[in-house]
Structure formats: C-alpha cells, structure tokens
Design brief:
This protein has six helices and twelve strands. The chain is α/β, with parallel strands linked by helices. It binds cytidine-5'-monophosphate (C5P).
Length: 197
C-alpha cells in the first residue's frame, strides 16, 4: 500500500472561541496542527501528508509543516477533504482522512486502521463505545435519557482505498457530510470498524 494522510484543518474553530482557527491553537507552545501532523509523518506506514488549511493560513501552515503538502480548504469539511484528494500524488492507493482536532491520536489506532486496509477492507473507521449519558434535547429543555447500549462514537483517522473515497466524493449530493465513511457507505461500500481510543 502507498498511503497518504489527509489532515483536515480548515475549520474556523468558532465553538472554541480561541481567536484563531482551532488547528493553530497552541498546545505546549506548538499549534495543534503540528502535533497532529507529527503523528502521521512519524508513522512508518504513511508516506505522504496533505493538509487542508484555512485559505488565509495556507502559507503559515506550509512553513510549520515542511514535510507536508498544504492546500486551501473549503467552506465545509467535505469540501476540504475533496481539495486535499485532488492534491494526492498519482501513485497513492490508500488514504487516511483525519480531523486535526484529534491531534493526539495514538499510533496504535493508525496501526489498526492500516492493518484492516491491508487485510482487504475498502473502508475502515475507529469506534469507541459511548460512555456519556445521552439525552434528547427539545426547545423546552431536556428530553428523555437515551439507551447508550449499542451506540459507538466514530473517530478518525478513517481509512479508504483511494478509488472508493474519490468515487464517493464525486458521486455525493450536497457538501455537508460530517465524515467520509458515511459517504462511502451511501455509495454501497461496506465499512469495517476497528477499536478507537
Ligand atoms: O467543525 P467540525 O468539528 O466538523 O470539524 C471537523 C474537522 O474538519 C476539523 O479538523 C476541522 O478543521 C475540519 N474542517 C475543515 N474544513 C471546514 C470545516 C471543518 O477542514 N470547512
């Protein structure tokens, strides 16, 4: 497999209210984006790293990440992934899509996603059982508690055969998907789960 990691970092971080996009918030004196990229640059199974950065910060991101290719992201996460896919080297056959907001992903999770792909999966997601108590919320306040048994949170990196991911992006209606696995699933591809962290 020739693997590229696509890091989506073009969100505004408006929920965080840090004054800069989330990917540029400093953690231990280094931007979140740098922490996230290091996990993939250092991983022996990943050859290339492509980053979708906020358009106004593409040059800053490129300076921070000399080992990555940096492209301007889009208005939505889905558009940012699509722009990064266009920048992949021709020989890449496998893509990991990762939210920079998850900057400290353990190498073991990347290992598990890559192992499932190497075993023949077309699409792989790390999942974690939900441990929070879940409630519905209405305009009037709290609704009933929801049974969390059988529910899992879906994380990143999500791994794909390149052809499968590119076809899903080309075929999807709209541009508001919140992850890539739901897009390939909508295109009829089976998604495999591995343990997240
Ligand atoms: O905003 P949300 O939590 O969905 O963002 C998830 C990830 O997608 C973040 O890493 C964010 O930087 C990225 N994103 C992006 N381009 C956008 C919106 C979000 O790369 N237009």
């Amino acid at each position: 497999m020739i693997v590229a990691a696509v890091l989506v970092a073009a969100g505004s971080g408006s929920r965080l209210r840090a004054g800069v996009p989330k990917a540029f918030v400093l953690v231990g004196a280094r931007p979140l984006l740098v922490h996230a990229a290091e996990r993939f640059v250092a991983h022996p199974g990943v050859r290339d790293v492509v980053v979708a950065a906020p358009a106004e910060l593409v040059e800053t991101a490129a300076e921070l990440l000399p080992h990555a290719r940096t492209v301007p992201g889009g208005v939505t996460r889905q558009q940012s992934v699509a722009r990064a896919l266009e920048a992949l080297a021709e020989d890449v056959d496998t893509v990991l899509v990762h939210d920079v907001a998850r900057a400290f992903v353990p190498a073991a999770v990347i290992d598990r996603v890559l192992a499932a792909l190497a075993s023949g999966a077309d699409a792989v997601v790390p999942t974690l059982p939900v441990t929070d108590t879940l409630r519905t919320v209405t305009a009037d306040g709290l609704g009933p508690t929801v049974d969390r048994a059988g529910l899992a949170g879906v994380q990143t990196p999500q791994g794909f055969r390149r052809s499968v991911l590119v076809a899903a992006h080309a075929g999807v209606a709209g541009d508001a998907a919140t992850d890539d696995a739901s897009m390939v699933e909508a295109a009829g591809v089976q998604v495999t789960a591995v343990a997240g962290a």
